[in-house]
Amino acid sequence: MTTIDYFFATISPFAYLAGDGLEQIAAKHDATITYKPVDLMALFGRTGGVAPKDRHPSRLEYRSQDLLRRAKRLNMPFNLKPAHFPTNMAPSSYAIIAAQAAGGGDLGGLVQSFMRACWVEEKDIATDDVVRACLSGSGFDPSLADSGLLQGAETYAANLEEAVEKGVFGAPFYVTPDGARFWGQDRLEDLDIHLSAQAS
To answer: Which residues share a beta bridge with 8?
Structure first.
């Protein structure tokens, strides 16, 4: 069975706009997904990227236009300037890591619920009540927000190192076992085609 390594940040607007596209592709190809939240700002620093706040105004303006266009095309609600962005990604990332280890819930749904909370619902995903609500709403024990802190911190740091090692430099980023890399929610179709070719 193919495993797709999914590197993402819980405050990435482009990861939010991916919706459940990756989960649909995985189901189509009988593949599994390993969710690997990363500290996107640290990743930028390690791979030559620039945090949005430090980018040239022309790049920021284009990013804004592109996000709005994509949200409209995908018919997804989207707030270009949410009340709680940027925010600390660690609590939501730790919760996802703990939930993946625990199993029993909808992990893809949990990932998407954090992003929706940020980009649609005007919630701060760094706060304990939001983290617990997202866990519970996706079928996980909300106490994972507390019990998974140590494992979460260690895995979160390891995910960053693995991302750099595998050539990941942004989010969302998808890596297949043969080393094929796909950057951006607009490359999901290419991932689908690649997996189809491997199966044939």
So the answer is: 37
Q: What is the pLDDT of residues 45-81, one digit of tens each?
A: 999 998 888 899 999 999 999 999 999 999 999 999 9
Q: The domain 3-199: what is its CATH number?
A: 3.40.30.10
- Rounded-to-integer distance, Cα 111 and Cα 138, Å: 9
Q: What is the mean pLDDT of the chain?
A: 95
pTM greater than 0.90 (yes/no):
yes
